[in-house]
Amino acid sequence: MTARFRRLAAALRDLVYPRRAVCMGCGTQIGFEEDWICPECRQELAKSWVGAYPTPKGIEGAAYAYAYRGAAAGIVQHMKYSGIHRLAAFMGGDMARAYRFLEPTGADCVVPVPMHAKRLRQRGYNHAERLARDVAERLGLPCVNALERVRNTVQQARLDEHARRRNLKDAFALRESVAGRRVLLVDDVCTTGTTARTCAKALKAGGAKSVYLLCYTVALPKKGGK
Protein backbone atom coordinates (compact mmCIF):
# COMPACT_ATOMS: atom_id res chain seq x y z
CA MET A 1 0.00 0.00 0.00
CA THR A 2 1.51 3.33 -1.05
CA ALA A 3 1.74 6.28 1.31
CA ARG A 4 -0.66 8.25 -0.91
CA PHE A 5 -3.23 5.43 -0.79
CA ARG A 6 -2.90 5.18 2.98
CA ARG A 7 -3.56 8.92 3.32
CA LEU A 8 -6.62 8.65 1.10
CA ALA A 9 -7.88 5.65 3.08
CA ALA A 10 -7.37 7.51 6.36
CA ALA A 11 -9.20 10.56 5.03
CA LEU A 12 -12.12 8.40 3.92
CA ARG A 13 -12.23 6.63 7.29
CA ASP A 14 -12.31 9.93 9.17
CA LEU A 15 -15.08 11.16 6.89
CA VAL A 16 -17.24 8.09 7.49
CA TYR A 17 -16.29 7.65 11.16
CA PRO A 18 -15.65 11.15 12.52
CA ARG A 19 -13.77 10.03 15.60
CA ARG A 20 -11.26 12.86 15.78
CA ALA A 21 -13.34 15.79 14.58
CA VAL A 22 -15.64 16.67 17.48
CA CYS A 23 -15.43 15.74 21.14
CA MET A 24 -18.61 13.96 22.16
CA GLY A 25 -18.29 15.35 25.68
CA CYS A 26 -17.90 19.09 25.13
CA GLY A 27 -18.22 19.60 21.38
CA THR A 28 -14.76 21.08 20.88
CA GLN A 29 -12.98 20.52 17.56
CA ILE A 30 -9.30 20.02 18.26
CA GLY A 31 -8.22 17.00 16.21
CA PHE A 32 -7.53 14.84 19.25
CA GLU A 33 -6.19 11.29 18.96
CA GLU A 34 -8.23 9.58 21.69
CA ASP A 35 -11.49 7.92 20.70
CA TRP A 36 -14.52 10.19 20.84
CA ILE A 37 -13.46 12.59 23.63
CA CYS A 38 -10.77 15.18 24.25
CA PRO A 39 -8.19 14.78 27.04
CA GLU A 40 -10.00 17.33 29.25
CA CYS A 41 -13.28 15.42 29.04
CA ARG A 42 -11.49 12.15 29.72
CA GLN A 43 -10.15 13.65 32.94
CA GLU A 44 -13.62 14.94 33.83
CA LEU A 45 -15.11 11.50 33.30
CA ALA A 46 -12.59 9.98 35.67
CA LYS A 47 -13.60 12.47 38.37
CA SER A 48 -17.32 11.73 37.92
CA TRP A 49 -17.02 7.93 38.24
CA VAL A 50 -19.81 6.43 40.38
CA GLY A 51 -19.83 2.61 40.48
CA ALA A 52 -22.37 1.11 42.88
CA TYR A 53 -25.03 3.47 44.20
CA PRO A 54 -28.29 3.38 46.21
CA THR A 55 -30.82 1.20 44.45
CA PRO A 56 -34.28 2.23 43.21
CA LYS A 57 -37.10 0.52 45.11
CA GLY A 58 -37.97 -2.90 43.76
CA ILE A 59 -34.51 -3.56 42.32
CA GLU A 60 -31.90 -5.81 43.92
CA GLY A 61 -28.85 -3.70 43.02
CA ALA A 62 -27.72 -0.83 40.80
CA ALA A 63 -24.50 0.49 39.32
CA TYR A 64 -23.64 3.41 37.08
CA ALA A 65 -20.50 4.45 35.26
CA TYR A 66 -20.74 8.23 35.69
CA ALA A 67 -22.73 11.07 37.18
CA TYR A 68 -25.00 12.72 34.63
CA ARG A 69 -23.18 15.97 34.10
CA GLY A 70 -20.54 17.55 31.88
CA ALA A 71 -18.79 15.18 29.52
CA ALA A 72 -20.91 12.14 30.45
CA ALA A 73 -24.13 14.06 29.77
CA GLY A 74 -22.74 15.25 26.44
CA ILE A 75 -21.92 11.68 25.40
CA VAL A 76 -25.44 10.49 26.27
CA GLN A 77 -27.06 13.36 24.38
CA HIS A 78 -24.94 12.78 21.27
CA MET A 79 -25.90 9.12 21.23
CA LYS A 80 -29.61 9.73 21.78
CA TYR A 81 -30.27 12.86 19.77
CA SER A 82 -27.44 13.17 17.24
CA GLY A 83 -27.71 9.64 15.91
CA ILE A 84 -24.15 8.63 16.86
CA HIS A 85 -25.10 5.13 17.94
CA ARG A 86 -21.53 3.89 17.50
CA LEU A 87 -20.86 5.49 20.89
CA ALA A 88 -22.43 2.35 22.39
CA ALA A 89 -19.12 0.50 22.14
CA PHE A 90 -17.30 3.36 23.89
CA MET A 91 -19.94 3.59 26.64
CA GLY A 92 -20.38 -0.16 27.04
CA GLY A 93 -16.81 -0.67 28.20
CA ASP A 94 -17.29 1.66 31.16
CA MET A 95 -20.69 0.16 31.94
CA ALA A 96 -19.20 -3.33 32.06
CA ARG A 97 -16.55 -1.99 34.45
CA ALA A 98 -19.26 -0.47 36.66
CA TYR A 99 -21.12 -3.81 36.67
CA ARG A 100 -18.18 -5.37 38.51
CA PHE A 101 -19.26 -3.35 41.56
CA LEU A 102 -22.49 -5.38 41.60
CA GLU A 103 -20.92 -8.82 41.39
CA PRO A 104 -21.80 -11.47 42.21
CA THR A 105 -25.33 -10.92 40.93
CA GLY A 106 -25.74 -14.19 39.09
CA ALA A 107 -27.35 -12.25 36.22
CA ASP A 108 -27.99 -14.62 33.32
CA CYS A 109 -29.44 -12.22 30.74
CA VAL A 110 -29.36 -8.55 29.77
CA VAL A 111 -32.60 -6.70 29.00
CA PRO A 112 -32.76 -3.18 27.51
CA VAL A 113 -35.36 -0.61 28.48
CA PRO A 114 -37.66 -0.68 25.44
CA MET A 115 -38.68 2.17 23.14
CA HIS A 116 -42.18 2.55 21.73
CA ALA A 117 -42.50 1.42 18.11
CA LYS A 118 -43.48 4.91 16.90
CA ARG A 119 -40.45 6.57 18.48
CA LEU A 120 -38.23 3.74 17.27
CA ARG A 121 -39.32 4.42 13.70
CA GLN A 122 -38.58 8.12 14.15
CA ARG A 123 -35.13 7.65 15.71
CA GLY A 124 -34.14 4.55 13.79
CA TYR A 125 -32.64 2.68 16.75
CA ASN A 126 -33.08 2.13 20.48
CA HIS A 127 -30.03 3.53 22.26
CA ALA A 128 -30.68 1.35 25.33
CA GLU A 129 -30.69 -1.75 23.15
CA ARG A 130 -27.38 -0.76 21.54
CA LEU A 131 -25.86 -0.37 25.01
CA ALA A 132 -27.41 -3.61 26.25
CA ARG A 133 -26.03 -5.60 23.31
CA ASP A 134 -22.53 -4.25 23.83
CA VAL A 135 -22.64 -4.90 27.58
CA ALA A 136 -24.07 -8.40 27.04
CA GLU A 137 -21.25 -9.27 24.65
CA ARG A 138 -18.63 -8.05 27.12
CA LEU A 139 -20.18 -10.04 29.96
CA GLY A 140 -20.80 -13.15 27.88
CA LEU A 141 -24.57 -13.03 28.46
CA PRO A 142 -27.52 -13.16 26.06
CA CYS A 143 -29.33 -9.90 25.28
CA VAL A 144 -33.09 -10.47 25.47
CA ASN A 145 -35.74 -7.99 24.30
CA ALA A 146 -38.06 -9.21 27.03
CA LEU A 147 -40.02 -5.97 27.41
CA GLU A 148 -42.09 -3.81 25.11
CA ARG A 149 -43.39 -0.28 25.62
CA VAL A 150 -47.09 -0.54 24.93
CA ARG A 151 -47.89 3.15 25.35
CA ASN A 152 -46.10 6.02 23.58
CA THR A 153 -45.48 8.04 26.72
CA VAL A 154 -44.31 11.62 27.05
CA GLN A 155 -40.53 11.90 27.45
CA GLN A 156 -39.67 11.55 31.13
CA ALA A 157 -37.17 14.43 31.12
CA ARG A 158 -40.06 16.90 30.86
CA LEU A 159 -41.84 15.66 33.99
CA ASP A 160 -41.46 15.81 37.77
CA GLU A 161 -41.24 12.60 39.77
CA HIS A 162 -44.98 12.33 40.50
CA ALA A 163 -45.86 12.93 36.85
CA ARG A 164 -43.25 10.36 35.80
CA ARG A 165 -45.04 7.67 37.81
CA ARG A 166 -48.39 8.51 36.22
CA ASN A 167 -46.81 8.70 32.78
CA LEU A 168 -45.32 5.20 32.99
CA LYS A 169 -48.22 3.43 34.67
CA ASP A 170 -48.83 0.19 32.72
CA ALA A 171 -46.47 1.43 29.98
CA PHE A 172 -44.42 -1.80 29.82
CA ALA A 173 -45.44 -5.37 29.11
CA LEU A 174 -43.58 -8.66 28.89
CA ARG A 175 -42.96 -9.94 25.36
CA GLU A 176 -40.62 -12.83 26.19
CA SER A 177 -40.48 -15.07 29.25
CA VAL A 178 -37.89 -14.33 31.93
CA ALA A 179 -39.32 -16.84 34.42
CA GLY A 180 -36.72 -17.84 36.97
CA ARG A 181 -34.02 -15.62 35.46
CA ARG A 182 -31.79 -12.99 37.04
CA VAL A 183 -32.09 -9.93 34.82
CA LEU A 184 -29.62 -7.11 34.25
CA LEU A 185 -31.72 -4.14 33.09
CA VAL A 186 -29.79 -1.62 30.96
CA ASP A 187 -30.48 2.04 30.14
CA ASP A 188 -28.46 5.18 29.43
CA VAL A 189 -29.63 7.42 32.29
CA CYS A 190 -31.27 6.93 35.68
CA THR A 191 -32.88 10.13 36.94
CA THR A 192 -35.49 9.27 39.57
CA GLY A 193 -35.53 5.51 39.02
CA THR A 194 -39.17 5.53 37.89
CA THR A 195 -38.50 3.86 34.54
CA ALA A 196 -36.31 1.19 36.15
CA ARG A 197 -38.88 0.46 38.86
CA THR A 198 -41.69 0.15 36.33
CA CYS A 199 -39.65 -2.17 34.11
CA ALA A 200 -38.63 -4.27 37.11
CA LYS A 201 -42.26 -4.60 38.15
CA ALA A 202 -43.19 -5.93 34.70
CA LEU A 203 -40.22 -8.33 34.67
CA LYS A 204 -41.01 -9.70 38.11
CA ALA A 205 -44.68 -10.06 37.22
CA GLY A 206 -43.38 -12.29 34.43
CA GLY A 207 -41.46 -14.44 36.87
CA ALA A 208 -37.99 -12.83 36.94
CA LYS A 209 -36.12 -14.03 40.01
CA SER A 210 -34.30 -10.73 40.48
CA VAL A 211 -33.60 -7.49 38.61
CA TYR A 212 -30.41 -5.44 38.70
CA LEU A 213 -29.92 -2.06 37.04
CA LEU A 214 -26.93 -0.87 35.01
CA CYS A 215 -26.83 2.60 33.43
CA TYR A 216 -24.16 4.74 31.85
CA THR A 217 -25.12 7.74 34.00
CA VAL A 218 -27.12 8.63 37.09
CA ALA A 219 -28.51 12.01 38.13
CA LEU A 220 -27.02 12.57 41.57
CA PRO A 221 -28.74 14.85 44.09
CA LYS A 222 -27.29 18.34 44.28
CA LYS A 223 -25.10 19.09 47.27
CA GLY A 224 -27.00 20.47 50.21
CA GLY A 225 -30.17 18.64 49.09
CA LYS A 226 -31.28 21.44 46.79
- Provide the residue-averaged pLDDT: 85
- What's the gyration radius in Å? 18 Å
Percent in helix: 25-40%
CATH class descriptor of the largest domain: Alpha Beta
Give the number of domains: 2
Q: Report the major sheet.
A: 5 strands, mixed
User: What is the terminal separation in angstroms?
Assistant: 60 Å
Tell me how many strands there are. Answer: 7
- Unreliable spans are none
Query: How would you write the strand order of the largest sheet?
Result: 1-2-7-6-3
What's the architecture of the largest domain, going by CATH? 3-Layer(aba) Sandwich
Give the strand content.
15-25%
CATH topology of the largest domain: Rossmann fold
The succession of helices and strands, N to C, reads: HHEEHHEHHEHEEHE
Shape: globular
Summarize the topology.
Layout: H1 3-16, H2 39-47, E1 49-52, E2 61-67, H3 70-81, H4 87-99, E3 109-112, H5 117-123, H6 127-139, E4 147-149, H7 161-168, E5 172-174, E6 182-190, H8 194-205, E7 210-218
Parallel strand pairs: 2-7, 3-6, 6-7
Antiparallel strand pairs: 1-2, 4-5
Helix pairs in contact: 4-6
Keywords:
two-stranded antiparallel sheet, 2 domains, 226 residues, globular, 7 strands, Rossmann fold, 39% helix
Summarize this, please?
The chain contains eight helices and seven strands, in the order H-H-E-E-H-H-E-H-H-E-H-E-E-H-E. By secondary structure, the protein is α/β, with parallel strands linked by helices.
Descriptive report:
There is one protein chain. With 226 residues, the chain is α/β, with parallel strands linked by helices. 39% of the residues lie in helices and 17% in strands. The chain folds into two domains: 47 residues, no CATH class; 176 residues, Rossmann fold. The protein contains eight helices and seven strands; from the N terminus they run H-H-E-E-H-H-E-H-H-E-H-E-E-H-E. Strand 1 and strand 2 form a beta hairpin. It is globular and about 55 Å long. The termini are far apart. The relative contact order is 0.16. The model has no long low-confidence stretch (mean pLDDT 85).
